[in-house]
Amino acid sequence: MRELFEQYIDRRIANMTFSFIELTSGDIHRDVGGYPGRNHKMVICCDVMYKRMAGDDEVISAPPSGKGATVTVRYYKKNHQGGALVCPVSVKKTAPKKTASDMKMQPNEVHLMVCGHRFDFVQELIPENVGGKAVAFYPQQDYNNKKNLPLHQYGSGAFCKFQIKASGIAGVYLWVIQDEIVYIGETADFKQRFNTGYGNISPRNCFVGGQCTNCKMNKVVMKAYDAGNSVKLYFYVSDNYKQVELELLSQYNTMYNVKDN
Length: 261
Known about the structure:
Helix content: 25-40%
Order of helices and strands: HEHHEEEEEEEEEEEHHEH
Number of helices: 6
Shape: globular
Largest sheet: 6 strands, antiparallel
Distance between the termini: 17 Å
């Protein structure tokens, strides 16, 4: 279990896109598995978090015992440049517009430079929601399953619906959650890939032989939104989208570009 925590934290640190990333023990253990549960390994998880600290990394919060589900550590990118980060990433922010209260970063004024390619911010992926919770849809119930096909590993349970405002251009896209690139994909038609793919799960795609990636990533949006996080979408326009995607995937071990996760 210790090794799994180490691999998870190392990947999150390596793939951070901004100057620091904050990781919380409870979130780490849930993602790795086994928490909550009677045989959880929270003490080991916290121990790994502390041992992964370097330089001026800092503990943002912790219970009196120092071990628990609320331990939060801020890891600074500059302290981990010798680790697994093998592809230069930088974030450029232009001067934010002033409001009556303060200055707020406008989403369309942010872009990511990843391996020399400029990815422009498109939008956050916000599902249809009521009261701060994503509306649940069950498309698998609408499928006329004449062949008695089984659901694939991502086909059960609830899904959400969302859309993006974009044209049908070709290129490569990034999904970013809490400053980490969690997914890299390519498409010949950006609008269609999201609005009739990830954001609107067809009944057939819930079953074996269907597009399981759509289901997997739809659940990522739903889970993130219900947890109070957001999925930020970035896009790089390119006719060589397949080549660019392969270039990025050769450098990044993302959370969801793994076939069995």
